[in-house]
Amino acid sequence: MADDIWIFNFDTGTTQNLTNDAAQEICPMWGPDDRIYFISDRDGRMNLFSTDLAGKETKQLTKFTDFDIKFPSLGKDAIVFEQAGYIWRYDLGSGQATVVPIDIREDFASGRGALVDASKNMQSVNAAPDGERVIAVARGDLFSVPAKDGTPRNLSRSSNAHERDAVWSPDGKWIAYNSDATGENELYIRLQDGKGDAVQVTTGADTYFYRAIWSPDSKKLLWSDRLQRLRYVDVATKAVTQVDHDNFGEMQSYDWSPDSQWITWSRPEENGMPKVYLFSTIDKKPAAVTDGWYAAGNATFSDDGKYLMMSSARDFKPTFGAQEFANIYRDMERVYLVP
Questions:
Q1: Residue 257 half-sphere exposure toward CB, CA atoms < 13 A
Q2: What is the CA radius of gyration of the chain?
Q3: Could you report the per-residue pLDDT of 270-291, keeping only the tens digit for each?
Q4: Contacts of 305 (CB under 8 A, 6+ apart)
Q5: 41-73, pLDDT tens digit by residue?
Q6: What is the dihedral of CA 261, 251, 232, 187, to 10 degrees?
């Protein structure tokens, strides 16, 4: 039900509907000329109107067609309001509405160069294979930090780019990470000692990349993305191989075998029951390890590569809810091994 503009008479205790229109009419303002100013969407947009105290002479004062008038406020000789992101002034004398020029003179203190404690803005930490140092991401830069003795090193020093998801290679030589130095996020590697330039190993990124993981032989990087793909890149040749592309969700759990020849991952399925798959880097063929009857995920290989371990929800021991009068399933998941 649309609002109307009303007047209440304190002497007689009566009310009078001044507008009585099907349109929405709000924000009444009593002008110095004894006219009531308000905004209404009678013409499809909220514009400024006025009416006399008898409600017999209503005038449309503005005719905006793109965006509504908002937050009108009446002063001594003008009404100010916001429209289309601008502040306007409607002059009661001339009947003209003009944009109020606003020039904000700011010191830009937040944009000035300054010394900032990066340790207060840590995003991720990954330990070196020998445990002597960690690679930390803070404020979009990569820092190699000693566990005990030594000096922290800023490896990237890239104020014009955002580095993230840094991981140390198993052989201890390289740091892999995502960076938007090209304008799109791509995978890069660089020497852990900070010497030399970063090497871009992917090109043509078309979506957001998640954190990559190294193959145990430090020759490949495996990652998933928001286009629901799972891919790996050969660091030496920069050749990218697609492992899987799912239609039902992103792949966020994946791992390498100890010999770097197999990949396992959990894939979302249409029925809501994720399945675990294997992929051989030699014949490049995926194979399902689990069926669609039970949800399975978090797959990883044992250290000797003989077993595939995963969590799976296969225990159905319902209890009966005292309030809902329905079966309640708890503790459904266990860890399973597949030879």
A1: 18
A2: 33
A3: 998 999 999 999 999 999 999 9
A4: 257, 258, 259
A5: 999 999 999 998 876 889 999 999 999 999 999
A6: -140
